[in-house]
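Bug: token stream looks shifted between consecutive jobs. Job 1:
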Amino acid sequence: MYELLFWKYLDEIYLNNQEVYEALLEKEEVEGLAVLQIDVIVNRINSVFSDWERVDENSWKNPKGKGAFQVITTPQSIKIDCYGTEGKTMNKLVDIMEEFKCPLYDPQVPERYDEMNE
């Protein structure tokens, strides 16, 4: 499994990304993070992956090849667990989240890909 995590900081706030990640995994509310439009984001993911089989309300699998992913949400974050998913598919998910101004935090590295990191 490869894990992708997304959140959005409020203006003028930037916290320790690893600590934010750990708090979000525990489903804690993190002061300084925006509340996300979870339904809108999940609907956008569903429309972009409309040719994928929707296994349940939070999971998709590729009917024409390998790969599946599951979306796990809190009011402040979107975590996407990818199973055998190709890089281009993960990039598509990252692009969707960029539309909502939620850059990727990659806990495997660990690194957040945003303007503070460039």
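Job 2, same session, no restart:
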Amino acid sequence: MASSLNPHPNAHPLAGAYSNAFQIAAQLDARAARTLPEVTAAVQHYAMLLETRIKAKASGRPGPNAPTGDYRRSWTHEVSTDGFTVTAVVGTNKPQARRLEYGFVGADSLGRIYNQPPYPHVGPAVEEIRPLFIAALGDTIDDDP
């Protein structure tokens, strides 16, 4: 028989309903507040490692040659947070980046014909850093308080 204190149909009339929802919510909030700086630090660290790895792979074969170093120096990273979201962007503002990574076959906008092979340096760098980054995030999230 349900009571006003406990709506469950099999509850004793004198039984109350108890919930620790507020305690659980407080613990989750505390965990999020503690985890966010750790995740931000991990994202910052691995964005820097990715940038460094891309620069290293853009320093000669099998990646692109970098005779002046200008292309290598153009790679940067930026980390931002928005609430509980942490984002890192690693990139360059150089127009040749796409051609160097993927190659180019055909005529350009000036009508010059190219058969430029790809010199992958971003993809291989991402594949090297990815498992390390995922493991680091897993360690950060799995840490007990």
